[in-house]
Amino acid sequence: MEANEPGAQRLSLPALRQWEAQGLGLFIHFGMATFDGDEFSKGDQPSSVYAPDRLDVDQWVNVARDAGFRYAVLTTKHVSGHCLWPTKHNDYHVGTSGNPTDVVERYVKACARTGVKPGFYYCSWDNHNRFGSVTPQFAADGSQGNWNWMYATRAYEDFQWAQCEELVARYGAPFEWWIDIPNALSHAFRRQLYDRLAALGPESVIMMNTGIGDGVDQPKVGNWPTDLIAIETRMPPTSASSDAHHGHQPWREVLGKKYYLPGEVCDTVCKRWFYQEGDRPKSDGELLALALLAKARGCNLLLDVGPDRHGLIPKEVVDALGRWQKNLAALG
Predict the structure, then answer these.
(1) Which ranges constitute the DSSP H helices of the chain?
(2) What is the pLDDT of residues 21-52, one digit of tens each?
(3) Which residues on neighbouring strands pair with residue 263, listed in sequence order?
(4) C or N: which end of the chain has fewer Cβ atoms within 10 Å?
């Protein structure tokens, strides 16, 4: 495809290249899983289990700014179903928890103060608010689920839309939407969700997560439509050909049309997405390589941290990011 051709995607090439120019984003995983110790939290713990005693959302965003991240993405609701804002659509949220601070509100305000662009992660796999849906842990009747089978009922889809709409109404349209496990949704609803989010925030970039892999075979039916290709804990491949094409190839064909779909590598500072006691940062060399490889292969890097049970990014993670920023700066 010629560089000056517009493509069939919703956002213009200049808008998408402006997103690409951001380069680095901070992923923030925090919520019920931080406190029950289960990354795939079953959502069966009382809301009061979530109880950070020194919560400092400003610290998170200050760390992002100081380490050179241009945007951030916060897990507003992960698989536990526990929400980091006081949603009016159920009672499983920070407002009924051991610390009623509206984390999303604090986060958006901190981003406005620092100039870090705010993104919202929202998971379509929800173990607590099932509405008869099937998740990897739970069948429709609440019995044992199956990791190879999941689907969301229309009642759950209505719930997801109501919560996403509520997030925008309260906090404004985000810089980036990160919709996880979109394949649980019906294609018709996923199309509606994409269109509605785009209508609420025409400048928002919408990610329907494409999952673990190098992104070469994306997008697929289960994550279309999307504005971006997620490359989770992998890197785009290099090419041995002599035509200098290597790394992420943003031009993709879908149903006979060409779309420009930038790539975003997501990976972790430590080994886990959420805080786990004893989970230490990767080596300075490993963290530096993540940034250099993502850039060299034509992708943004969304690098994850997990604030601890106090509600703080641990000092060893802050220090690791400080060294990482200095190492990147030294390379120009």
Answers:
(1) 13-22, 32-36, 57-66, 103-114, 154-171, 187-200, 284-296, 315-330
(2) 999 999 999 999 999 999 999 999 999 999 99
(3) 229, 299
(4) C
> Which residues, 6 or more positions from 218, have their beta carbon under 8 angstroms from its beta carbon?
210, 229, 230, 252, 261
- Give 29's contacts (C-beta < 8 A, 6+ positions apart): 75, 78, 273, 274, 275, 304, 305, 306
> pTM for the whole thing?
0.96
Per domain, the residue ranges of the chain are 13-330
| Residue entry with tokens 């609420």 | 200
Please tell me the distance from the alpha carbon of residue 137 to that of residue 129, in angstroms, as a whole number: 13
Classified as helix, coil or strand, 132 is coil
Residue 2 — very low, low, confident or very high, per pLDDT cuts 50/70/90? low
Decide: 66 and 325 in contact? Cβ < 8 Å.
Answer: yes
Contacts 24+ apart (CB under 8 A), 93-96: 93/47, 94/50, 96/47, 96/48
Tens digits of residue pLDDT in 191-200: 999 999 999 9
What pLDDT is recorded for position 242?
A: 37
Q: What is the dihedral of CA 211, 214, 215, 221, to 10 degrees?
A: -50
CATH code linked to domain 13-330: 3.20.20.80
Element counts in the chain: helices (H) and strands (E)? 8, 10
Q: Please, are residues 177 and 120 in contact by the beta-carbon 8 Å criterion? A: yes
- The whole-angstrom separation of Cα 190 and Cα 194 is 6
CA 294 to chain centre: 17
* Helix/strand/coil for 266: strand
Amino acid at 212: I
Sign, Cα dihedral of 257, 124, 58, 197: positive
Secondary structure percentages of the chain, helix, strand, coil, to 5: 35, 20, 50
| Tally of CB atoms within 10 A around 108 | 22
Residue with tokens 């402006």: 18
